[in-house]
Amino acid sequence: MSELDIEHSAGIVIYNSGRYLLLNYGRSWNSPDRWGLTKGHIEKGETIEQAALREAYEETGIKQIKICKGFKNKVTYYFNRGDKRIKKTVVYLIGLTETTKVHISAEHTGYYWASYEKALEMLTFENTRRVIRAAEEYLRENDLAVDFYDD
């Protein structure tokens, strides 16, 4: 591996009445059942918010999402794609929605509306759990969080 490619993505922590929307990516190299958040590449000319909203719609079918302007959480990680080493940075926003109807894309195998505690339990990667912890803190500080315990 001689080259390092850099990728930039945007994602949304989709939140509705005390629950976070988690997406199942199915089997991956490190997990038989990988759970994560909506995210995808920022296309040329897009802002982070535009890319995040587009990806959320493409992956979940949810169009009515209100972005919380005061939250941005950046995650950087490395992975291999063939003989290339990739450095990927994802900026996550929080999006509030009133819908629970989800129409997942073909790139996912399922979805789950999880309480905060259940989301921390289900998410595959620690960096994604850190995003959920930061989102929960932001939502609580801004009186937007709702306690939900019945998972």
UniProtKB/TrEMBL annotation:
It comes from the Archaea. It holds the Pfam family NUDIX. One of its GO terms (biological process) is ATP biosynthetic process. Keywords: Hydrolase, Nucleotide-binding. One of its GO terms (molecular function) is nucleotide binding. Residues 5-136 form the Nudix hydrolase domain. Belongs to the Nudix hydrolase family. This is Bis(5'-nucleosyl)-tetraphosphatase [asymmetrical].
